[in-house]
Amino acid sequence: MNKKNAIQLIDISHSYDGRQILNNLAFSVGYGEKLIFNAPSGFGKSTIFNMIMGFLQPERGRVIVDGMEVTEDTAKDVRSKIAFLPQNMMLPNASVRDFIHTIEKFDANLEVGLNMDVLKMLFKELQLPEDVCDAKLNMLSGGEKQRLMLAIVIALDKKILLLDEALSGVDIERAEKVLNYLSGIKDLSIVFISHDSRHMGIGDFKKLEVSYHGS
Amino acid sequence: MGAEQVTVVGIGILLAFLIPIFVVNKMIGLSINKSMIISVVRMIVQLLLVGLYLQFLFKWNYSWLNVTYIIIMVLVSAFTITGSCKLKRSKFLLLLSMGVGIPLFVLIFILTGFVLKLDNVFDARYIITLSGMLLGNCMRSIIISFNTFYNSIRENEDTYLLYLSLGASRDQAVKPQIINAMESALKPAIASMMTIGLVSLPGMMTGQMLGGSLPLTAISYQIIIMVAIFILQYTGIAVMLKIAANISFDSRDRLRKEIFLH
What is the C-alpha to C-alpha distance for residues A60 and B204, in angstroms, rounded to an integer? Predict the structure, then answer.
């Protein structure tokens, strides 16, 4: 298995209800590499993230994460290395504090846990209210929820971070600070999907190159 | 002192009151007449049959026959649950029968052996009637809990996947849906215990008193029944939801579509 890359997609093809979504797609993300991707609408980014997370089996091709091919047997192990923030989030009706405690107790987080110092620092950087932990999740605005979840996934201290439009509710100055902070974490590999072209080129974030072999 | 016999004429008088309801339904365009007639006819035929064979069961009172009859009741209830929840019988029938049947038998023998202290713990008059009451309530609760659980998983798939994406195991990711399903299924039982005697007089207690039992005897049975119903509902729901959570997802933790009838 290739241990050079944190994530590698090899000639992935996939269709839904007879409609081809991905055709011989290939890309790789090296260890510590931070990539940003301006995915056009209908590109199949959810499909790609679901394959990396082991939720979906590609019809053809292979997905390799940290040297491990993502299969039914390895999906759980693969997920323990990744923190994924999807674009569409339905948060439970709980207080922020209880929600954070719930996430801390998740099986894959028991060893490392949440880095509370990072979390507090990010709450401040992302302009979340000081008493955000006392608030109920359903009382937060859409932007606040997004910033809260971004802080949480970063504080999970995983090797790989998948972010789907995670900074769309954050102004550019704050986004720059967050992306620069993420650039400073050398071992962290990131795939960041963003429609905002201003995010391109901040810190160590480079444009993700995708190729289609033989399509 | 026994209850007054209900005559065929008496039943007929009461059924006659369904005729104006039938006419009103027609007038206002409420299309329930067909299902109303079918349900009333089915209710009468089913109860007549039950009355008939219960008479024989009570008369013979063979332990093996009584237990066999309860097993058949359990299978029918499992059959009804799979049908109501549109689940494939090949996957769920056996598991449901065991998940409901085992706690039912344990509870019935606790009731007959330790609570009522009967000489014959297999006495048809007790185990068949008690099983019927317990099973009927447990079946309704499991149907509510299953429907709530699967609907909740479908409606909140984003939350479920978010939890998995944040490091949750499958059990941890479905926990909110399981809690939601248990709450929905147990709320009616809790509400009924809350209001019993104030808003409603339960059928069994009323029947016992009409049959000549003292109110205090009828009440003590009702208390036992209410607690037993709640215990079986809780156990049945918890066991079945745990089983459902284990068999309803594939190894990639996605809800299996093939467990449902199309």
Answer: 62
The predicted-structure confidence for B186-200, as pLDDT tens digits, reads as follows 999 899 888 888 877
Which residue among A82, A107, A153 sits closest to B169, beta carbon to beta carbon?
A107
CA angle A77, A80, A86 (to 5 degrees): 120
Query: Chain A contact for B95, CB < 8 A?
Result: no
pTM value is: 0.82
Contacts within 8 Å (CB) and 24+ apart, B132-137: B132/B73, B133/B204, B133/B225, B133/B229, B134/B104, B134/B107, B134/B108, B134/B225, B134/B228, B134/B229, B134/B232, B135/B73, B135/B74, B135/B77, B135/B100, B135/B104, B136/B77, B137/B189, B137/B229, B137/B232, B137/B233
The residues on A that touch B, with CB distances below 8 Å, are 53-57, 72-73, 75-76, 79-80, 82-86, 88-92, 103, 105-109, 152-153, 156
User: What CATH number does domain A5-212 carry, 3.40.50.300, 3.10.25.10, 3.90.226.10, 3.40.190.10?
Assistant: 3.40.50.300
Rg (CA), chain A: 17
- In this prediction, residues A50-78 reach a mean pLDDT of 93
DSSP string, A176-196: HHHHHHHHT-TT-EEEEE-S-
Domain chopping of chain A, boundaries: 5-212
ipTM of the complex model? 0.87
Whole-number Å distance between alpha carbons of A212 and A27: 9
Beta strand segments in A2-123, E: 5-16, 19-30, 34-37, 60-65, 68-69, 82-85
pLDDT of residue B61: 95
- Rg of chain B over CA atoms, in angstroms? 22
Residue B160 CA to residue B155 CA, distance in Å, equals 10
Quick one: A6 exposed, middle or buried, by C-beta within 10 A (0-12, 13-18, 19+)? buried
Separation between Cα atoms, residue A69 and residue A99, nearest integer Å: 32
